[in-house]
Amino acid sequence: MLVYTVRRLLGAVPVLVLASILTFVLIDVSGDPLADLRLQQPPPDPSVIQLQEERLYLDRSMAERYWLWVTGIGGNGDIGLLQGEFGPSTQSTTYDIGANIAERLGVTLRLVGAAMVLAFGLAVLTGVVSAMRQYSKVDYTLTFIGFLALAMPTFWFAGIMQSAGVGFNELVGTQVFATIGDGTYQAQGQDLWGRITNAFAYMTLPTIVLMLTTFASWSRYQRTSMLEVLNSDYVRLARAKGLPERVVIRRHALRTALIPLTTVTAVGMAAIIDGTVLTERVFQWRGLGEFFIAAVDSNDSYALMAWLMLSGTTVIVANLIADLLYGVLDPRIRYE
Fold this sequence. Notes:
- The protein is mainly α and 336 residues long.
- It has a domain at 97-329: MetI-like fold (Orthogonal Bundle).
- It has 13 helices and two strands, in the order H-H-H-H-E-E-H-H-H-H-H-H-H-H-H.
- It has helices at 2-29, 35-38, 46-55, 62-71, 97-132, 137-151, 154-172, 192-230, 233-240, 245-267, 269-283, 288-297, 301-329; strands at residues 79-80, 85-86.
- It has a two-stranded antiparallel sheet with strand order 1-2.
- The chain is globular and about 85 Å long.
């Protein structure tokens, strides 16, 4: 296992290098970070533009800028991924991209972590129930709910849930669900029970949005995988031996059926991150989603590249974890 893990980590290095090249090139050719400054009326003094070009390293070639962005060698100490510096920002000379990512990362991880755990559990439950009761009313009902959730745009569903939360609060005469903000500052100085109620109020609605839009596709994969396993020879043999149905499902069918869902979950990390951006925007969470939108609005190329590299690294790590889980789910898989 250790050798396999090290080998997979080493194999991720060229993938990250390729991802960094594609990220840099695509962002670099997508637009001029100083376009707004150049179009100002009256036009700024050419020396101002020249100073900004030097600060953002736009006076150098693309290849040199990529080298600076990765290594920081030859820079001014504010750039270099290997040195923990993401580069200067167009938003402000005092705007620290790395510090802002670190500040917002915990906010986003709360939402993504809770939504993923709940979505995975709900997908497994509905997928198994649908497969065991194939073509029944329960199966058709769960299928309808899954396709309905799959068809709903994230931003639209988030708006509906936000309005529903406001309506519920007005109905009961008190704020049960917080519809704006992430509650980080409200939780400061509170006792344990206060932090729990604060987390429930602020996390419930956005977590439901991201969970339902995520679980919909996962449940369909789980249902299909479970149907294939239930019709396999070794499951029939287990039943023929007289094993209780719950033992057959839990020990023989479910573990094997979880392998495809594990793969889909790892690959689907990119979609979860995209959904998080929209969800945070609607509920006005100060997470990485707001960071990304602010970077787009200000054409902050280094901030965009930092966000994309973080997202790409997350997907790669998720796939590594999925590979390691295969051996846990199916003892027939061995890492040599």
